[in-house]
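Worked problem 6 (solution included).
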Amino acid sequence: MLNAGSDRTAHRSWQPVFADDDVVIPEGRRINSGAVPLFGDMPIWDLTAMGVLPSRSASSARLRFDRMPQDWVLIAKTLAMALLNPGHRELLGAGLFSMNHAFKVGTIKEQHYEMARLARWSEKVGLTSVLSSWTADDCQSYLLEVETTRSIAARKNAQSLLRRLYTCRGILGERGLLIEVPPAGGKAGSGEILTRPIPPEVFWPLIRACWTYIDVYAPDIIRARDDIQDMIFASSQLKSDGHGKTLGRRESRLRIDRALDDWLASPSGFVPLHILTYGNARRGEVNWGRFSLLFSPFGGGKHVFEGPYGKGRRTLVEDAVRNGFPTRDGFSSVELTVVDRADGTRGPWCSGFDDLRLHRELVQLRNACYIFVSIMSMMRDSEVRGITSGAIVTHYGAPAIESRVHKHQPDGGTSRRWWVSDPVVKAIKVAEAIALDENKIFGSAMRGESTGFKPFTQIPSFVSWVNSYADDRGLQRIPVQHISPHMFRRTMSIIAANEPDGEIGLGITLKHNAVRALSNATTSGYGAVTPAWAREFDHENKNVNAGELVSYWSRNSDGQRVAFGNGEKGFVDGLNRVSATLESAGKIGDERMLRNLLRDEFASIRLGTINHCLGDPLKARCLEGQSEIVRAGGPIPSMCQPAACHNSIITVEQLSIWRGEEADLIEKLSDRKMAGVHRARLKKQLQDVRKVLGSLRT
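Solution. The predicted structure is:
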């Protein structure tokens, strides 16, 4: 272990501006009780008194200086001290007024890791810690090393560190960098958001699986937990109360034997089996350790089936099973919800519950709640994981979640509220019901294998678990792909931004202010649609159009006239083709098939207010004389010519709009005081309207 004295001895040519007894954490930034680290402390600075994000562990707030080359220790300490104390007199005396805000622990920790990497790289290539001797080529060599061996994103951290070593050269002396590295951009030059959304083919099965867990499976899981815990508690009470202690060993043995005989003779009796393989247990074998919970007058325990008398009991049970005595997966008596399975059958969504299955299902239920709340609330990971019991409140009459925003906020974060829907409220209540810690409902769900919660491992764990049992549980398989918490927020931003007035709602939900929501590119950029989601929205629009077309198909099938205009024949022919396909398949009453056929038959149709466009580019009058690039984009609604285009159809409902427009124009033209220029414009409009109506009368 290094001490402060040896630390400074290694830097005889440069002494830091901070004293060994300078307090690292300013008093105003201490929000918790905790250590008071000093600049000279080694090997660790404990910064937990500044608060720890709900999404991080206490170790994330500790800086270790004994894991980097000794020549770099004081450089790392000085830079960390500067970020923690931007108003320190030594910084102001050196003219460092630009560092006008205190940095968060996470940023300092990232810088610390990057410093260690830079130090190890410099030793590898033969550079010293005297950074004033480094050249621009040395800096570029390190950035190239980062980009080629780590990632383009990691280059940003490396650039930030090198720029800070240059900015702080006034307090670093010869250890400061004299080369200014270009700034690292947070976005691509085009303004593109670097966070990738979850593809639609992954997103929809994921959100449906989460909701199925919350809405269908959760009641069974919670009842099974209570049932098993009650059995175990009752067993422990029997033992602690001393039942059977006054009996002789022979009498105790006889009572257990009689209880087992009664159980094996009972019409409701069964032998519990292990559901999963773990340790010495094997799936499908008798769960001897929990079997005695069901019948023993002295509580449960594997000892009932051990020893010389236990061996005989095992033989008795095995013989009974061979002779047809029923067995059951698990030992819980909870009646399970029946679901529709992939093969068309119906049955319970799982086979039963024992200790291990219960633990696994509680963990996955917790994961489902976390994923669902993160997606549907668009909260950040730290904000979701900061939710405590009782976080559901009413805000202006609507349900909301109360948590804390940490990004760009003072230490400890700022309390905020997010409006949420009823399904999110339900997910929060389920998470509360299974949480072990009321101060962290997305922590441990059950004591056992998992004692914490790490989204980067639990999200893929949920996907894998769903895919393993999808067919038997009526779930859709989720394509395996990397999914991280920040992708939830990005994906829902795309969906929300493509709803009416979604830009305003998105700005409010993401905690951007009203000005940013209406005019700044940050919100719209975060909700910018990707090609995959563009296809998804186009598919959804086609489904909506198909729903609108059902009424036209129905009236056309009854012999009614449903459209007018030059495109009438093409439209009616399409409806008749759908009818013929349904009839040949023998599925006239199948609404789902009808919608699918209408969607595919009229894939290019555009439904409008005053007319509909069949969308055939070969018939589009608006595309005549246009370039190939323009024609590739399809018909142009703003250049539509309803009276002349063979794509245009006008329905009975729209016909009344045209007649109303004709009457309105005639009324306006009756005004003899109207200026000539306005009269000429209205006459032209009336001429166009009558041209359309004239084409409809033919």
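Discussion: The longest strand covers residues 398-405.
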